[in-house]
Amino acid sequence: SFLRGTVCVCVCAGCLLLSSVLLAEQEVENLSGLSPNPDKDIFVVRENGTTCLMAEFAVRFLIPYDVLALNGIDLITEQASLALPRGARIEGSCGSTEAELHISWVNNAYTLRIYFTKVGEHDGKAKETEIWKMSKVQLVYNTSDTTHFINAYNPGKHTASTHRLSALVTPGGRSYVCAAQQTLTLISSDHQKGITIYMSDIQIQPFDIKSDFVFSEPYKCITDQRERLEETLPLVLGLILALIIVITITIYHFHLKLTAQQPQLPRDRSLYKNM
Ligand SMILES: *[C@@H]1O[C@H](CO)[C@@H](O)[C@H](O)[C@H]1NC(C)=O
Ligand SMILES: *[C@@H]1O[C@H](CO)[C@@H](O)[C@H](O)[C@H]1NC(C)=O
Ligand SMILES: *[C@@H]1O[C@H](CO)[C@@H](O)[C@H](O)[C@H]1NC(C)=O
Fold it and tell me: What CATH number belongs to 21-219?
């Protein structure tokens, strides 16, 4: 029962540590706006003198395109990898249930359009809860841009879109936050090629922003919640193990002291039988 007591003390100490680690991390959450990520951009749409849509994220695109093979007959597929440059032009619209963000760059050779919708969801008990989500993403690109599409065959403008999406689902009145990378696949008008969009370091709110330039209460994506636990769990387990070792050594130390104080037992083995 002494061992059980020791283990219990250790587990409780671990719980206290775990909760203090989680509390400590929540306090610095406000500083996430000072991200060291240089690829991250901030987009703000304001209407009637106040912010109605705000988004921060880093984004990269992987776009396959055709080039003529050396034999001059076959087509081979190359991949263009590009990021959103600084100072892109933004436009947007804010409605009560529909919102859009349009980002254009390189003289409109590229346009990224993100569509958001707000819906009421019935949770079974005839009670309605509000959520918003990203409902569609579209990328318009022009393979005549020779900085990214080298020797593109038959260059021209193409449009790639997602199917109807239910991404970034967030409770109404809150902003979606996700540090982990989110991947989207778009189907292009260029021979149904699959375009991949990688978004990371995201904070987005397209509806119900209460004060100018300030995101409402964040809602963390599942990946981030899980990662946080995965980061802290080994630390806590390590601390518990260290504690168990210290306690065991202490017990052993006192045990040695106690036995040393006891009178010496007879050395002769034959005497044991009579005891
Ligand atoms: C942190 O956020 C809370 C609400 O989200 C706000 O009241 C507080 O002023 C913020 N603190 C800093 C330092 O920005
Ligand atoms: C801005 O004002 C116009 C006209 O008063 C109104 O129709 C519109 O809904 C307002 N927009 C927002 C986001 O409140
Ligand atoms: C694509 O880019 C090329 C070169 O900049 C331009 O001539 C062409 O008009 C563009 N295509 C469209 C549809 O805008």
Answer: 2.40.160.110
